[in-house]
Amino acid sequence: MAVPDPTLPSFPDDFLWGAATSAYQVEGAVAEDGRGRSVWDTFCATPGKVARGQNGDVACDHYHRYPEDVALLAELGLDAYRFSVAWPRVQPTGTGPANPAGLDFYDRLVDALLAADLTPVATLYHWDTPQPVEDAGGWLARDTAHRFADYAALVAERLADRVPWWITLNEPAVVTMLGYGVGEHAPGRTLLLDALPAAHHQLLAHGLATRALRSAGAARVGVANSHTPVWPASDHPDDVAAAAAYADLHNWIYGDPLLVGAYPDLAWLAGGLPDDAADDLPLIAQPLDFYGVNYYCPTRVRAADPGEPLPFAVAEIAERPRTHVGWPVVPEGLREILVALRARYREALPPVLVTENGCSQDDAPDERGVVDDPDRIDFLRQHLVALRQAMDDGVDVRGYFVWSLLDNFEWAEGYDQRFGLVHVDFDTLVRTPKASYHWLRAALRDEG
């Protein structure tokens, strides 16, 4: 296979290169080792919620095939693997003692990564809340934050001696808005702005878990937030105000409490948070060792029309090419949001890891078994150029993780959206590295 020009901008010698996955999207084995039921098991079993009625019961079977996947990571030349721990695998009901067999899997995975000279980066929560915790109120209930801290302590007790990087939460904004606000993700609630307690309780969970991780000896603790540049659809004051409201809802009600210990001063926000939210801010705003940024594309926003349920609506970015899932390709948006974070938080912004960046393409093996994905190569190359520009602008970025190592179960989209550097045949589970995998391998070798 001819590899396109792998030349990239120069990055620091200690820059951390990695790939990412999440437990429910790749592990499978949902009925093995005592794992309990998660909200995503329930959501997938609800007719009409997931495309083609698909689920993560098998996914990529990473649970059994992790040695093969670790070998793919090592051959790619990466430094690190960002994986998530399934809360219901460790605590089947979300409370009580750890399930030893569940923790044993992560023991095996971490040891395999270390043997391959790969750094484990563990995410404690990538959306798979145990169903009994949801039944007791889920992220709308304050008690869930304390249950999460107990779970964090159990995982850290087993793994903190070998896992140097810890991410508490992945994309609490998405859980709040899609899971509790509009019902497109598990648990499928449609509360609109009444979902705001879920945002606060996740942030509280982060603070409590950070304390538990550090008590267990975790070396570096951070969080992974979804961030998007927000563009008004026009310069009309109503569109500008709508864009600002969306930016507050998606970006700043998460970044501000974590990094400066305050929520944005917004009347609509104050009315939606729990009454005691301000008392929790010192715990939420503990110093972080790094700040994870997941970036995919900007969001264009217009003012809502009469009768629409929220004060804003998403407008199309029609002038840009699109990925298979329909998201616009805007590499300079990565630079824009990183520079915006630096401008907003200044010295309060810790070193940054780009913890997710990637694209879905409609790719499949040809008659020779080759998976050619030139659009993904272009996507990665352009975003890495934008990342280097942000660093030149003064943003302290220490690493970059491609989403994803493997084609996987892509939540409500099922298996139709392929984000992987490695193609997975979901009938046979055969892995085939794509052209983008070979391109990135060559680029990393050039980087040294």
UniProtKB/TrEMBL annotation:
- Known EC number(s)? 3.2.1.21
Q: Say if the entry is tagged with keyword Ribosomal protein.
A: no
Catalyses: Hydrolysis of terminal, non-reducing beta-D-glucosyl residues with release of beta-D-glucose
Superkingdom of the organism of origin: Bacteria
Q: Name one Pfam family in it.
A: Glyco_hydro_1
SUPFAM superfamilies, from UniProt?
(Trans)glycosidases
- Gene3D superfamilies, alphabetically? Glycosidases
Keywords in UniProt for this one? Carbohydrate metabolism, Cellulose degradation, Glycosidase, Hydrolase, Polysaccharide degradation
This protein's record includes keyword Cell cycle = no
Per the record, the similarity remark reads:
Belongs to the glycosyl hydrolase 1 family.
Which protein are we looking at?
Beta-glucosidase
The species this protein belongs to is Streptoalloteichus tenebrarius (strain ATCC 17920 / DSM 40477 / JCM 4838 / CBS 697.72 / NBRC 16177 / NCIMB 11028 / NRRL B-12390 / A12253. 1 / ISP 5477)
